[in-house]
Amino acid sequence: MALQAGIVGLPNVGKSTLFNAVSNSAKAQASNYRFCTIEPNVGLVDVPDERLNKLAELVRPDRVVPTQIEIVDIAGLVRGASKGEGLGNKFLANIREVDAIIHVIRCFEDENILREEGAINPVSDKEIIDTELQLKDLESVEKKIARIEKQAKTGDARLKYEYEVLLKCNAQLEKGKNIRELDLYKEEKAAIADLFLLTDKPVLYVANVDEASMHTGNKFSDTLNGSVKNEKAEVIIMNNSIEAQISEMENPEDKAMFMEEYKMKEPALNRLIRSAYRLLNLQTFFTAGPQEVRAWTIHEGWKAPQAAGVIHTDFEKGFIKAEVISYSDFIHYGSESACKEAGKLRIEGKEYVVKDGDVMHFRFNV
């Protein structure tokens, strides 16, 4: 279940540098991680998870398989994209298809890198893209309002509810605000789900800073942080060029020395990928055996049969029970058999809500 996070941003903000760094990072770790290009601008990228490595150290399987997300490098945006300027129509269509947005914003000064919008201004850059997405959403909302207005006013309860939600969204967009800031109820979200509204998608901001600011941030990233506080969105501070250099290094010792020089415990890319994974409301369960230790992706709140179905549809159809060991117990006792002896292996039924990090085996019959 590889869900998509799309990288967006104005021209020359470091968007493609970031995508290339993500791509190279996955390729460079080919012994443990995989990367494959689906299209020239779409890649499957492994989610770094130290828990998977620790389980593998204990089980010593034939292979280790991480879980993945898709990272999409979306065509650059220019002012007027909502009206088709530049690659606007392609850009907006591609964003509509992704599940979450990684918005790269330039937070560094460099006279050698062209900037069409004048002086560095992260808030203005953010607002340019926000405005284009809001205008496109407003167009979609207004079209549906016009389509259902008469029926909604004649007594159809479902359409009346949809109409009221659409009016709420319309008012928000006309104020120049994003739909995700409305905190819509589950039922309200369902009422507008068919519109795939761009400003309703969860967003993660990447402040692309200079080398001197990669650990502390700078005045530009501070301004960006302040401008998104009401969105409850995370801002990751990183230097995309440094990340690209790290990702190109195939020798682990060279990479370690380079990161030590820059006082880095791990590439910032790892934080970015993990944050994008969380942004999609995903979590991980594991299967662990001599042939394979593997991480599997599910949505938060999924029950055991749904988790089983990620492995194979037959597992969900014929689900009987799940054998569950918490990750902390598995690490503490060192093996499945030791967990059984200590009474830490539980048998759970169809109503069990899977927890992040559960180590599971499924009993099924088809």
Using only CA atoms, what is the Rg? 23 Å
Along the chain, the helix and strand elements come as EHEEHEEHEHHHEHEHHHEEHHEHHEE
Chain-averaged pLDDT: 87
Q: What kind of sheet is the major sheet?
A: 7 strands, mixed
- How many helices? The count is 14
Distance between the termini: 23 Å
Given as residue ranges, the uncertain stretches (5+ residues, pLDDT < 50) are 27-40
Question: Numbering strands along the chain, what is their spatial order in the largest sheet?
Answer: 2-3-5-1-6-7-8
| Estimated structural class | alpha/beta
Strand fraction equals 15-25%
Number of strands: 13
Can you characterise this structure?
This protein is α/β, with parallel strands linked by helices. The chain has helices at residues 15-28, 50-59, 88-97, 122-152, 157-174, 186-191, 219-227, 240-248, 252-261, 268-279, 304-311, 313-317, 327-333, 336-341, and strands spanning 4-8, 35-39, 42-46, 63-65, 68-73, 100-107, 203-209, 235-238, 282-288, 292-299, 319-325, 346-348, 359-364. The protein contains 14 helices and 13 strands. β2 and β3 form a beta hairpin. The protein is flat. The protein starts with a strand and ends with a strand.
